[in-house]
Amino acid sequence: MNKVTNLCLALFISFPILGSTNLMLVGDISKDELFSTHRKFHQNYLDAEPLSSDEKLDLDGISLKVLFGTWCHDSQREIPKLLRLLEDINIKPELISLIGLNYQKNEPENRGVILKIKKTPTIIFYRYKEEIGRIEESPKLNFEQVGMSPVTLLEENILFILKS
Asked: Which of 75, 83, 67, 59 has its CA nearest to residue 122?
């Protein structure tokens, strides 16, 4: 009887962990994996405003590394918007590396340390493998002061970097 009780207790304790859709994802992550395991990311992606600019951009040689924590509220807010905007800009998914970080802002391949990640999310833009810009955490401007929505401000940051 004691073994049955212990087994039931172990299952009861582990069920919220095993049944959770908010497990911390660390290392390389696909968009599908992120959305299937983290409903908030998927819902925020569906709710994100489309790109407002129809400006043509030179995307030759562009790639991105997106380092974030599935546990981080800034990541939960910004990464879905980013993915929607990048899709609207027509940056191919294979050029976007999604990298999940742990609470120490690192992962098994040590890219958090190598890339000097201090805040999540950090979005690094490359042109022909050379870094051309970063967006860290979230926009720093007061949205009401500049008359822009958070999505527009993120969009402006992305467009500014891609034009450089």
From this structure: 67
Question: CA–CA separation, 66 vs 54, rounded Å?
Answer: 24
pLDDT for 154 equals 76
Q: What is the dihedral of CA 86, 140, 110, 94, to 10 degrees?
A: 0
Could you list the beta-strand ranges (E) of 5-164.
27-29, 62-68, 96-100, 122-127, 130-136
Listed by start position, the domains of the chain span 23-163
CATH code of the domain occupying 23-163: 3.40.30.10
Model pLDDT for residues 74-83, shown as the tens digit of each residue: 999 889 989 9
